[in-house]
Amino acid sequence: MEPIEELLNEVRLLWHRLVQVGERLHAREPLTLSMRAVLEFLAREGPATVPGIARSRHVTRQHVQALANGLLARRLVELVDNPAHKRSPLVRLTRAGERTIRRMKAREAPLLARCAVGVSRSDVKKAVEALRAVRAGLGGTRR
What we know:
About 65% of the residues lie in helices and about 5% in strands. It is built from six helices and two strands, in the order H-H-H-H-E-E-H-H. It has a two-stranded antiparallel ribbon. Helix 2 (about 35-45) packs across helix 5 (about 95-115) and helix 3 crosses helix 4. The longest helix is centred in the N-terminal third of the chain and has 23 residues, at about 5-25. The mean pLDDT is about 95.
């Protein structure tokens, strides 16, 4: 097997494991892991439009709209006026949304710390760079 195939196989295996662990870790949260990803994006990047979130995550606008609707129904996000575009409001975390993503990340922190044992910060940065380069080669953006 070529090294790039090994890398991509590990990515797939890691993704499936992350889903399993995340679902178990957050079983009591009334959210999907995809909803969690939107909350995390908004916490990191600030208010954004549905199309903007979709572009950044390389998924469809319709997918993000469904997630946003679920988060709106749970009052974890709210829609606010967008001065740059009248017909595309900004999605913004509510206080409940901020508390929810902080709680989920706090629950994840000990697990992530255990995962990092034996892996240097430098190696993690190299892995990130390698994955970004592969994604760019497949037509994804560098970010």
